[in-house]
Amino acid sequence: MTGVSANRLSLNTATVKQQWNLEQCIEGCARHGLGGIAPWRDVLQDLGVSKAAKKIKDAGLQVSGLCRGGWYTAEGALTQAVLDDNRRAVDEAAQIGADCLVMVVGGLAEGSKDIQGARAIVEDGLAQTLDYARSVGVKIAIEPLHPMYAADRACVNTLSQTLDICDRLGAGIGAAVDVYHVWWDPDIQEQIKRAGQDRLLAFHVCDWLLETKDLLTDRGMMGDGVIDIRGLRSDVEAEGFAGLVEVEIFSADNWWRRDADEVMQVIIERGASAC
Amino acid sequence: MTGVSANRLSLNTATVKQQWNLEQCIEGCARHGLGGIAPWRDVLQDLGVSKAAKKIKDAGLQVSGLCRGGWYTAEGALTQAVLDDNRRAVDEAAQIGADCLVMVVGGLAEGSKDIQGARAIVEDGLAQTLDYARSVGVKIAIEPLHPMYAADRACVNTLSQTLDICDRLGAGIGAAVDVYHVWWDPDIQEQIKRAGQDRLLAFHVCDWLLETKDLLTDRGMMGDGVIDIRGLRSDVEAEGFAGLVEVEIFSADNWWRRDADEVMQVIIERGASAC
Fold this sequence. Notes:
The structure is a homodimer.
Chain A: E1 9-12, H1 22-32, E2 36-38, H2 41-47, H3 49-58, E3 62-63, E4 66-70, H4 80-95, E5 101-104, H5 115-136, E6 140-142, H6 159-169, E7 173-178, H7 179-182, H8 188-199, E8 200-205, H9 229-238, E9 245-247, H10 260-274
Parallel strand pairs in A: 1-2, 1-9, 2-3, 4-5, 5-6, 6-7, 7-8, 8-9
Helix pairs in contact in A: 4-5, 6-8, 8-9
């Protein structure tokens, strides 16, 4: 199995969030020959959704995902404000032609120890967003986050749990599989098979560093850590996943401090050698 | 459901590792009326195993576990040196009358990305240690560690995975359930039921802090974090677990810096109010 060529890579804008705004990311992806981009909502709104959509299209880039909807537990109970914001996220995903809207579902409500309660809120919220998303043809991708984020970011923490939710909610919803979040899971191969092509909506890469110095912002460039990225890519592609390989690296002390064109160059090299 | 009284608590010596040697831990447990102790092998060897066994017995303390055997991947392949060391750990557990020998099984071999290979090494090693442990009547407790330790400490990361191993290896082996490692698991209630009384060999408590600033040494005192400790205790006790509640807190910036008698006092208060 060979590596991933530049035109099969997508840049998640968080990877160079300290260096480039969205316009620079679009230009950078085009200049370096990447196949796609995955913007975050904040930078998308900064540029303006319509303007961004046009620039992305003009640059010939695919949109591997919009990051992110979700966070259903932000206000304790599920509120109209949270649901409305997710509806706007769906609209934005539609406007930029994103392959999916990626959902970071939210952790425990503030002051709560009730993770089962949080999970119920999340599923209720996902169901309502999904109803709307179906009506406008946007696919919803739940991103199970690493268990170390269960309290403060996402109480959906395994692909198995994700697919249980998808089973209950029906068509139009699947998973964003990020190697950083799932690589440790003894059940991951089996669950990727269970997901199947229709529910494998995104594939994100970075690496787990030894040692990891921060729970959020010490993710590694592909090849610098311990994840068998190519093995996991092989697993999703064996099920028919044919989307882009999205590079999403939070790295406060390393990649966020480097020249963004250098980062892009390394991403392309590592796409070939380590993905 | 009421809290845990002092005589149902056990002190894992790592909780005051910066303040007290094993002799002081034994005296401190007796002075504060704790029911038991769980020494680490390094401090046990420092005091001398026979001497420690006598002091623990004279103090009237139960030994909720010996920390720790395992680390089967330490030398890449399973070596005689690693197996011999685990055999010694079994002997030490027998000498001090420990309820179980707790196993932190080891992570990836150095330079390796093959987590399935690591898991195979671990299971082979556990099988061999178990053979010996059965012959001397020591119970082996696999401690599934939080997935954030999969690379560098333990590639057994869920109770489900632990019980799959136990199913294959047979009698004499079970699980040490530490709330810190398992609280996030959507499957934990079901797996505690699956474990049953015979395989629930230890129950460890501390808390998951928001925010967690270090992957290893920023664990919280019970009640200071987000884990529903009482709920999990209720789950294990519903299966018949009647062992001590072992307090194991790694806390470089807080509890390791306080006066150990103060730590003991807080442990007893939180046993009652938060466990």
